[in-house]
Amino acid sequence: MSSAVVSTSAALGRPFVFDAKAVPEVSLPSETSEGRPPQRVRPDLSADLAAADPRLARVTPASRLDIRPAPEMVSSGILAIDSLTGGLPRGCLTEICGPASSGRTSLLLAALAAATRRGEFCTVVDASDALDPDSAVAAGVELDRLLWVRCGESSQRECSPRRHRATETNSLKNQIQSRSENQTEHRLEQVLRATDLLLESGGFGLIVLDLGDLPQQAARRIPLTTWFRFRRAVENKPTILLAIEQHPIAGSCSSLLLQLGDPSAADPDNIGPTHAQLLTGLDITAELIRSRLDRKPARSVMFETKTAWAG
Known about the structure:
With about 300 residues, the protein is α/β, with parallel strands linked by helices. The chain has seven helices and 14 strands. The strands form four sheets. Strands 9-8-10-11-7-12-13-14 form an eight-stranded mixed beta sheet, sandwiched between helices. Strands 1-2 form a two-stranded antiparallel ribbon. Strands 3-4 form a two-stranded antiparallel sheet. The protein is globular, with a radius of gyration of 29 Å.
């Protein structure tokens, strides 16, 4: 009687002995047209291992794992964005990137208005006190369902610097720069702490991290482990986590990445509006950079934003 010894990590170092004759070998028919040799296939030994040790019966093979269901998609409030991405995914992190005047605020207010119309409670973690309540109301946001977390105001009262002599000008500039960096770090710490508490508490349909007005160097200081923690915290929850930024900073932790921009900004002949013109709106281009929900190639759409007085 011949035997074979099989050791597994789940067996804690104890070998199992099987009779080699009890395991038949099945040969596939050879394919003479291609000249391939016959292949031998050995049946799956998972049943035999489970019978030898009941603890192995609780191990699910990778081939039998359930496929993760696709997240629920809800409207972003802008039809062009919905046609591009299918909406905003629940239980995922979505990044909206773009420079100033690229439509970030318009998309933010549209998403808040759509969520509050659905009867959901929303929150905006504002790193720079950039949210304008009047503009939010004009966009259709129900303020009774909105929590505004303001992180831009310093908790410490600072005195204005007095006049110094010319020889102390450089020292004063260094002090002001250092104070500004400390305020930015303090705001960023408040943003991350508030986001952790909001994700842990639950009950919000939309949580927005508005980092659009933070210096890019400060935003890139957020470690990737923080974004991974946010992604894990929002999984399996009916919450949309939306990050507004100048450039992508969450890496592979975001399930959806949109890049916004003004197409006229790339035109060298465009000198912009003059003082005699009234701004009534902007044409914005939205490009789908990454989507873990849809493996179609990158594509873009265009939508228009209007000012409140333009109707």
